[in-house]
Amino acid sequence: QVQLVESGGGLVQPGGSLRLSCAASGIIFNINAMGWYRQAPGKQRELVATMTSDGSTTYLDSVKGRFTISRDNARNMVYLEMNSLKPEDSAVYYCNANVRSLQDITLMPYWGKGTLVTVSS
User: Are 95 and 112 in contact (CB under 8 A)?
Assistant: First the structure.
């Protein structure tokens, strides 16, 4: 079965940095879009950053210039480098990937369980 596992969350001061990692495992044939969403208490889940396998990126407007998404396609991993963090960045960050695997006849979305990022002074 395909699984996505996030790591790297934690507590950081405003202005600080964190690097999130997500590893996809399973019998994977292809991953197209892969990236990160976040959800804060009382708010809807929102797209933070995604990257397709050819390197095209999409960012939430409020994180542009501060966050950088990267991928290691050979290892089925995606990263999110978060700089200049603000309290409003606090949320559970979820890894997302569109995956074609052994059990899938087409690309299907998969989600990780999330990693908590808290930005507080």
Answer: yes
Residue 88 has what DSSP assignment?
A: G
Q: Determine the pLDDT at residue 69.
A: 98
Contact 71, 56 (CB under 8 A): no
Can you tell me whether residue 70 is helix, strand or coil? strand
Please tell me whether residue 75 adopts helix, strand or coil conformation.
Answer: helix
Of the chain, the percentage scoring pLDDT greater than 70 comes to: 100
What residue type is assigned to position 29 of the chain? F
| Residue 89 exposed, middle or buried by CB count within 10 Å (0-12, 13-18, 19+) | buried
What sign for the dihedral angle of Cα 38, 64, 79, 117? negative
pLDDT in tens, 15-35: 999 999 999 999 898 899 999
DSSP label at residue 74: G
**Are residues 46 and 35 in contact, defined by beta-carbon separation less than 8 angstroms?**
no
